[in-house]
């Protein structure tokens, strides 16, 4: 049942229904049967409040409440309030930050990495972890359909990051990554690019005890029974899978683009007395 809330729909249709955020409708409310199993959102009261303060050049605190208290202000205080609240008749605050001209991110000025919605950032890679099972080929095209690719792991650092996340923060299930065995060249390759693996996370014991012909039509998955080390299985087996995209870099602004801060927001824990 996927019924949007309208005045016309209220009535018998909503018996034993609960409210859900519908991802297919930009997270608008929908009515669903209460017995359906779905992810859920928990909430807890916050023990913080936000205090907005203005700082002058001498680093003396100037509280916004002084501007709105209605008490007479000195000329200096009026200037500070004008900087904080804007000019009379203007509903928008005065600009505190000069808008920089766009520049291309480089390794030196990258501040952080940003991922698409519903993806997890690990280093400069973004990953999504499927809830459904698929063959290796189906998993490949499912990732491509969502403008991503089956995970490609280039080095041990990326492998360790992914294994640490899988071992500690997600349901333990075998999951395909994007490598398969090319029996013609007798090499493991990334399915998307056709390039040989420069890093191979398959344990040496597996490679040593398995003849090459046994790897035909096999692909690599991360095996929770082996602490999510790489393992191999037939491409026709259905498993969950990991999709990946490269994170977008968010750059730091260059020197001289930001004015000295005139205001700041502090989050202060409330006392529990």
From TrEMBL:
Q: Which PROSITE patterns match?
A: C_TYPE_LECTIN_2
What's the domain of life for this entry? Eukaryota
- Family annotation (CDD domains): CLECT
Q: Where is the C-type lectin domain?
A: 122-244
Q: Which PANTHER family match?
A: MANNOSE, PHOSPHOLIPASE, LECTIN RECEPTOR RELATED
Name it: C-type lectin domain-containing protein
């Amino acid at each position: 049942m996927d019924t949007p809330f309208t005045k016309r729909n209220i009535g018998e249709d909503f018996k034993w229904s609960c409210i859900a955020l519908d991802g297919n409708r930009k997270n608008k409310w929908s009515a669903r049967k209460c017995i359906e199993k779905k992810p859920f959102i928990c909430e807890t009261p916050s023990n913080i409040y936000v205090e907005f303060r203005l700082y002058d050049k001498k680093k003396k605190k100037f509280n916004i409440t002084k501007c709105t208290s209605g008490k007479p202000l000195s000329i200096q205080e009026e200037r500070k309030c004008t900087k904080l609240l804007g000019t009379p008749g203007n509903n928008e605050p005065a600009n505190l930050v000069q808008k920089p001209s766009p520049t291309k991110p480089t390794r030196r000025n990258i501040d952080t990495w940003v991922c698409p919605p519903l993806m997890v950032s690990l280093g400069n890679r973004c990953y999504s972890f499927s809830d459904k099972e698929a063959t290796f080929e189906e998993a490949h095209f499912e990732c491509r359909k969502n403008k991503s690719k089956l995970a490609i792991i280039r080095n041990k650092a990326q492998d360790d990051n992914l294994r640490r996340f899988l071992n500690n923060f997600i349901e333990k299930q075998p999951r395909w990554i994007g490598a398969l065995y090319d029996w013609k060249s007798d090499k493991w390759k990334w399915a998307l690019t056709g390039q040989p693996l420069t890093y191979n996370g398959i344990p040496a014991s597996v490679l040593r005890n398995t003849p090459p012909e046994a790897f035909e039509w096999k692909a690599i998955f991360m095996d929770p029974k082996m602490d999510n080390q790489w393992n191999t299985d037939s491409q026709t087996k259905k498993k969950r899978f990991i999709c990946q995209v490269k994170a977008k870099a968010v750059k730091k602004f260059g020197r001289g683009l930001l004015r000295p801060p005139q205001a700041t927001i502090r989050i202060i824990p409330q006392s529990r007395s």
